């Protein structure tokens, strides 16, 4: 089985699209599929990481630098034509084309339809039409009918955290958590993560706030292409017992060492919930608003639209005051079971 992935990474696109596609590709490769990637050569991309994981990558020529998460860098029809040319050059017709990009919609997909057997779209915005056979949206929502009219009637919709694309390491970490439980509660141990790129530099601001509040030993995670790496490294000198992790593969172990979370929404939501880690979620992009609000209303985390000293201090004091209540909240988060990637891979493999 041949599967082609079309996804990008850049400062304002982030790394999440590529990362979740690699997770799915890894699960499919374990089942015998050949997976290749088509990515545009934007500045601050993580194509090298995709190649390091053993996937062949066809690079599209660099266009304008993306200024939003939905920016392809070239007109959509140009991107479709360039992608189609690469696919037509392959030795076999792809069984699936997996598309994960906010800048791609039905018009692009229709151009690629003649050169692939089936199309699988990963989306979480529900704001545009798609021509696809399967659509996956792993987000928690109040509106389970939100893709009605946006996809063809025959499209199989995989909706909700049941299909969250988590790496296999999270399954092992979940099993470890179920056997051993969490380490003793330690309010000093906080996971700080605002995405691989964090173009707005929330990480530095979060560390400054923690310094103002008290003594912490944060586990801080950033991507290798984070443009503010030097500032983050400078802040870490004030946390002698803290650790900075750059482009790490050890996120499950890091999460199990932490007692609470301070960071953004996105795919990490399902990773930390799988391991019972809750805390403060700061909305850093519009696509995070709906599902982060839905989870907030159900009491799974505290939601902030602006990262501020007062918001963090209030949460921290509440957490210390009601430690048992906070731990029960983390336990509730564990409804995400980490097996969504294999459910999705199975559907691809047997369709």
Summarize the structure in words:
This protein has 351 residues and is α/β, with parallel strands linked by helices. The chain folds into two domains: 2-166 and 338-349, Rossmann fold (3-Layer(aba) Sandwich); 168-335, Rossmann fold (3-Layer(aba) Sandwich). It contains 13 helices and 13 strands. The chain has a seven-stranded parallel sheet, with helices on both faces. It has a six-stranded parallel sheet with strand order 10-9-8-11-12-13, with helices on both faces. Helix 9 links the parallel strand 11 and strand 12 (279-282). Helix 1 packs across helix 13 and helix 6 (202-213) packs parallel to helix 7. The longest helix has 15 residues, at 16-30. It is globular, with a radius of gyration of 20 Å. The termini are close together.
Secondary structure layout plus pairing:
Blueprint: E1 2-7, H1 16-30, E2 34-40, H2 47-52, E3 56-60, H3 76-89, E4 96-100, H4 106-112, E5 118-122, E6 134-137, E7 156-159, H5 168-180, E8 190-193, H6 202-213, E9 219-222, H7 229-236, E10 243-246, H8 251-257, E11 260-264, H9 268-274, E12 279-282, H10 289-297, E13 302-304, H11 309-321, H12 323-332, H13 340-349
Parallel strand pairs: 1-2, 1-4, 2-3, 4-5, 5-6, 6-7, 8-9, 8-11, 9-10, 11-12, 12-13
Helix pairs in contact: 1-13, 3-4, 6-7
Short structural description:
Helix content is 37%, strand content 17%.
Task: Provide tags for this entry.
single chain, 351 residues, alpha/beta, Rossmann fold, seven-stranded parallel sheet, six-stranded parallel sheet, 13 helices, 13 strands
């Amino acid at each position: 089985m041949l599967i082609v992935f079309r996804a990008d990474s850049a400062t304002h696109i982030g790394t999440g699209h590529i990362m979740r596609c690699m997770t799915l590709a890894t699960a499919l490769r374990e089942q015998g599929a050949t997976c290749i990637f088509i990515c545009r050569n934007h500045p601050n991309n993580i194509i090298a990481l995709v190649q390091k994981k053993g996937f062949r990558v066809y690079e599209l020529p660099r266009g304008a630098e993306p200024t939003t998460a939905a920016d392809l860098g070239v007109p959509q029809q140009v991107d479709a034509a360039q992608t189609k040319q690469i696919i037509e050059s392959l030795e076999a017709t792809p069984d699936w084309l997996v598309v994960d990009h906010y800048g791609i919609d039905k018009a692009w997909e229709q151009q690629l339809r003649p050169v692939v057997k089936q199309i699988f779209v990963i989306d979480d915005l529900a704001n545009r039409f798609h021509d696809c056979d399967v659509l996956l949206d792993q987000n928690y929502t109040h509106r389970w009918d939100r893709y009605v009219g946006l996809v063809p009637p025959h499209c199989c919709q995989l909706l909700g955290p049941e299909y969250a694309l988590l790496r296999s390491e999270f399954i092992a970490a979940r099993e470890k958590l179920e056997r051993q439980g969490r380490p003793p509660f330690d309010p000093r141990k906080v996971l700080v993560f605002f995405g691989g790129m964090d173009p707005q530099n929330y990480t530095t601001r979060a560390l400054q706030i923690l310094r103002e509040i008290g003594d912490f030993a944060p586990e801080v995670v950033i991507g290798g292409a984070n443009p503010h790496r030097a500032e983050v490294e400078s802040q870490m000198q004030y946390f002698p017992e803290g650790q900075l992790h750059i482009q790490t593969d050890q996120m499950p172990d890091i999460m199990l060492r932490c007692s609470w979370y301070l960071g953004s929404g996105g795919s990490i939501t399902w990773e930390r919930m799988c391991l019972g880690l809750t805390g403060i979620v700061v909305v850093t992009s519009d696509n995070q608003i709906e599902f982060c609000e839905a989870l907030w209303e159900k009491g799974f985390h505290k939601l902030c639209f602006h990262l501020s000293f007062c918001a963090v201090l209030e949460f921290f004091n509440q957490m210390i005051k009601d430690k048992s209540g906070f731990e029960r909240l983390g336990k509730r988060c564990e409804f995400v079971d980490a097996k969504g990637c294999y459910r999705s891979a199975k559907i691809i493999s047997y369709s």
